[in-house]
UniProtKB/TrEMBL annotation, chains A, B, C, D:
Gene Ontology cellular-component terms listed: cytosol
UniProt keyword Amino-acid biosynthesis, yes or no: yes
CDD domains recorded: Chorismate_synthase
Ligand binding (FMN): R125, G126, S127, G285, K300, P301, T302, P303, S304, R327
Catalytic class of the enzyme: lyase
Protein name in the entry: Chorismate synthase
GO MF term list: chorismate synthase activity; FMN binding
Catalysed reactions listed for this entry: 5-O-(1-carboxyvinyl)-3-phosphoshikimate = chorismate + phosphate
InterPro entries (UniProt xref): Chorismate_synth, Chorismate_synth_AroC_sf, Chorismate_synthase_CS
Length: 363, 363, 363, 363
């Protein structure tokens, strides 16, 4: 129990479910004196909001943030910042058929196995809507990171078997913002879009890969041997629904290489120590080295599909079949990008405080 | 600071460095009444011990465990279990040349950036020897898991570009134990061995992949939304030195697939709910579903190689070169297998306690 | 930073300030399946609500609870329970004079020293109103304790120099409920009431002692050596605003005694092990022994008084004087009783889960 | 379970029991670069060592510290500092009679109720010897506090009904060091000594009060609303064996007073904000105000006495009697003073780090 709080000094507690009254987050540990407005959070929530393009679910939620605490005269006051988003367009009727029939790929069965029963309406707290809490926490974290000129950017690098070409770091944010797939490689983006629409038409869904890069992170973040920066990033990213794999830097490619090829050698640039390559993704020995921090996560295809699927009736304890209608995302990757940024931003904010790069009392 | 403790209810704190007086671990939270002896821990330590084959470092350490507390009449007594291993064969001389010259791929520079100076002797606490603490904690965790007939098995599935063929779960432990590479695919093991010896000869090193499977884990483990079982496993595995990627189940393969192919459908087997496939690796929605839990981690090539490498002299702040002699592992994968088992076992022990599957007071 | 979460498995995070938008709490870790309604929480909030008698502040707050999450079909669903109370009658005007002039005895100065500035309106988060969060968490904890027939009762045993006579445990709750001072000794209650009204008339305030007793707590709660049950109770009670002392059992009286007098001897009652006396207050060696758990806390006089007081103008950094008008409690003890019950109930709920007396998954 | 770690950033984990192999502590989170030697720790251990005067137990332990990790070139290196003390003079024979007969006032019964059985030898981990771990952690904390010129001093202010007169803060440490009772009031010390020897002769024991004062603590320490500085101090002090009451500042005296008398008014002294009185004990609203931090704890008489006492035979489940021989302290207060200092020092070190007054990476 009690797994809804993350972070040590920058502590975020989230709550709420897909069809409950509201969702939200309490952000504790943000220093006082940080300028913060509802708009700062709304901007990020709008990026994960559904119904914004033809490749996302049509569920019509405005996801308006309401700040309940933590702000005094437009600045954080050192006390918990609480943001709430009320559910407006929850339609539970579509879920009645699954009351006792767990949907393959969803948490319905595992949550029932744990809690004895389950909020079958839209996945309850197992729903992707719970990432509203992540984004609220991430929005505050990002504002804090801005103080140190740290920027976190996510983009889609793969959809199904379509892989994006490498794009210069400086262009990723801009280019990825120019298409609904949020892929910085415009050519690939178009192909990805077709792939997603094709899956949508078939009532199927497709997976992908989301890369998140943090620029401007100082060397010295991370607390070996257990709270290494890469370890905490891995936990934060793997904890996002539908994520089944995480890489730092070259990740699994390194398994195929030799050290003579992959060791990042050191050199000096304007008295700054840098590495000629960045196979480590900016983290060595669990501590940041000042280079860009690069993470990638594997996102599975959203399990809600309209083909008939085999499952078990938990009440009658007999095998049965279900067919999911509802409103779903044929590929969740685009909408997951702000969530990945939030997850990384929260980890960085926590470690910046733990390592003393930010005054925990006030800006 | 303070990142050397892991777990919430099964809490393991480790200490010690490569060339210090000793290394060890304090295991707090193990229920009383569990039969535990030094042998139980020594057995696991021997599996990670160096100098056991021609593909590991010749550093001659017996790694004898000494139990300082927590055992009363051959059983745990509910108080912290402390195990210590004294360093015997530390040879610091070989490291003098690197006093101010960080070795590429090692934590030398990042630790210095953080702590202001660095124990250059064998990597200090950044050394792989710190995993002695992991293995002590893991050995206690494994004994606890035995009570619930849960078994954790690691094996090497890839070395460089050599990938092992799939081996029946029931044979993995036995087969992997029959070769020094700890690969269950005997044919591949031989090729891997040659690959490692070839790298060793060249003064180079090679990476690989280690798969860890947990059998017999009950459905219901995991604490969404942040302390999901897969999230905690990802943190534990990514936190092991040299690991740069983690997968659960089909991991990155899922990114290329569609839900119609990858959704694990449910069926009944002797009144037990099972899934026809296990692409999820036994974890859905962050909670275990009763199927085998499957994880894989990407291990980078050990950075200590004998070729000349570029680095920076931190004292003179000028570029320079180094050549590493010392005693090293051309491929760390085989020795990492017990560490991976330990990391997974500790996470499972913690979650079994958190979810109430084990009486926290006494067995 | 980040000190607004308490508990390990029964985790309560509170937020909000005296004159902000709202106050509330997120309760994480409550098992699923517990019947819980807004009424269960409202009942407790009404007991701490202001304006209920002539010895409390006239601030007119209805303190209506709104549940945002965690309940499904009238039962807890294993996810975070969020309760919010909106401020309705905040009147900041009265506080303008103290914008830069810290009120003696209040946290104004210390909070400013920490956060750089301060929400001078009604004490901001330093206000007693923040205990609304404690009471929400306590209300959920009490419902959980009911499952094990554990009852927590607070009553006022001293106001100024007026001390209550001992009252049989079985009568405390009933008798204390019959007077506005919440003192079980009806005779003393009348004198206490006069003392409080006398102080009120003089624009002064008076302190007191609140005793909290937990009945039905099983033997075996507490986690030595640091998380002892009495240690956690001491932290929870000392953490309540205005509390400056905590005792367990005979407390400071024991300092004057000898062991031959104070040792609680064991005997058998219907095969149950009990102690002939209870000087230990139900906790020995940091672990409960099955006897009633008895705590007492010293409550200082509420610092808001109308006499002229010396202070310092933080802006001009010169000595000055202030006179507080506003609306205040001449003795906070009666209203603190439900807060003390909540603090104790939350600690017990957490330890019952930590010690495995409650299934953490579901009731 | 898992209650043997304290602190968030300055994290201390202790282990070991009275008659086991060894006791010790792992201190994690101490910044690198702090000069620290075995002597620094031994000095503190010697102050709590038994057998140093005729009013302490004759158990002959030298309590020699051995440092296993965390020190590099005479300075802390940012990794866990581990200190171990081996038991040398454990005599278990005296405890055989209590194998199944819990001693009144000791944790024997409660630990058995929790763990199913109990290390009856000298109280196992329930023994006062476990405070060796506290003192190791405290010794490191004190070294860290020295960097900020913070001093922590404990002295005995009461033994039985003998109360010490107030002594000027500047003289307490010196005067208390001049007598075996560690009371700064030399006259009272003599009477206390007689009282203790008188109790010893009768095979009885006597309680007392220990006051601990921290000088030089900056304003701004404490994390409301739950991790207030006074709340954490209360937990740390109440967690020490035999402590049954804790006061901050005037504590229980405040319950009898009115705010017009007890409010600490502010004034300026060399541009520093101070209070004319210090009834608050240096903590207001849970945050330090820059004045000396004053705590007092009530210590119960050590329960080991030679008179015949009633108890229950846990095996036969029948009432019986025991008589304790063994070697004991007729008054534990003097030996508890360094433990109280350690408890306070650890809390301050943790909060100095949490509030950013110390660079967590290195001195």
């Amino acid at each position: 129990m009690a797994g809804n709080t993350t972070g040590n000094l920058f502590k975020v507690t989230t709550f709420g479910s897909s069809h409950g009254t509201a969702l939200g987050a309490v952000v504790d540990g943000c220093p006082a004196g940080l300028e913060l407005s509802s708009e700062d959070i709304q901007r990020e929530l709008d990026r994960r909001r559904p119904g914004t393009s033809k490749i996302t679910t049509p569920r019509g939620e405005t996801d308006q943030i309401e700040l309940l605490s933590g702000i005094f005269q437009d600045k954080t006051d050192g006390t918990p910042i609480t943001g709430v988003v009320y559910n407006k367009d929850a339609d539970s009727s579509a879920y009645e058929p699954f009351r006792n029939k767990p949907r393959p790929g969803h948490g319905d069965y595992t949550w029932t196995a744990k809690y004895g029963f389950y909020d079958y309406r839209g996945g309850g707290r197992g729903s992707g809507r719970t990432t509203i809490g992540h984004v609220i926490g991430g929005a505050v974290a990002k504002k804090l990171l801005e103080q140190l000129n740290i920027r976190v950017v996510s983009h889609v690098t793969q959809v199904g078997d379509v892989k994006a070409q490498h794009v210069a770091y400086s262009n990723i944010e801009e280019y990825a913002g120019q298409n609904m797939v949020r892929c910085a490689d415009q050519k690939a983006a178009k192909i990805m879009e077709d792939k997603i629409l094709d899956a949508k038409e078939k009532g199927d869904s497709v997976g992908g890969v989301v890369e998140t890069i943090a620029f401007g992170v100082p060397a010295g973040l991370g607390e070996p041997v257990f709270d290494k920066l890469d370890a905490d990033l891995a936990k934060a990213l793997m904890g996002i629904g539908a994520v089944k794999g995480v890489e730092i830097g070259f990740g699994f490619q390194l398994a195929e290489s030799t050290a003579s090829v992959t060791n990042d050698e050191y050199y000096l640039e304007e008295k700054q120590i840098k590495t000629t390559t960045n196979t480590s993704g900016g983290i060595v020995g669990g501590i940041s080295n000042g280079m860009p921090i690069v993470t990638r996560m594997a996102v599975k295809p959203t399990p809600s599909i309209s083909t008939i699927q085999k499952t078990v009736d938990l009440e009658k304890m007999e095998e049965t079949e279900i067919q999911i209608k509802g409103r779903h995302d044929p590929c969740i990757c685009p909408r997951v990008t702000p969530v990945a940024e939030s997850a990384v931003a929260m980890v960085l904010a926590d470690h910046l405080l733990r390592s003393g790069f930010i005054n925990p009392r006030h800006i």
